[in-house]
Design a protein that fits this description.
Elements (H helix, E strand, L loop, with lengths): L1 H16 L2 H4 L8 E2 L5 E2 L1 H14 L1
Length: 56
C-alpha cells in the first residue's frame, strides 16, 4: 500500500505540473508511443491505465 500511495503522489504531482494543452494533445508527433506501438496523449494513457488497473 505504501508503494501505491507513492505512485499516486508522483502521478498527482506530474499531472498538476501539466497545463490543459499538454494533457490532451492533438499533434501525433507529441503523443506517447507505447511498447505495443499505440499512440496516446497523457489523458488517453491515464484513462487506459485506470481501466486496466480496475479490470485486474
Amino acid at each position: 500500500m505504501q508503494d501505491f500511495n507513492k505512485m499516486m503522489v508522483y502521478n498527482e504531482n506530474v499531472l498538476n505540473a501539466l497545463n490543459d494543452d499538454e494533457i490532451e494533445e492533438l499533434d501525433e508527433n507529441k503523443k506517447i508511443t507505447t511498447s505495443w506501438k499505440q499512440s496516446y496523449d497523457v489523458e488517453q494513457l491515464m484513462e487506459h491505465a485506470i481501466v486496466y488497473f480496475f479490470a485486474s
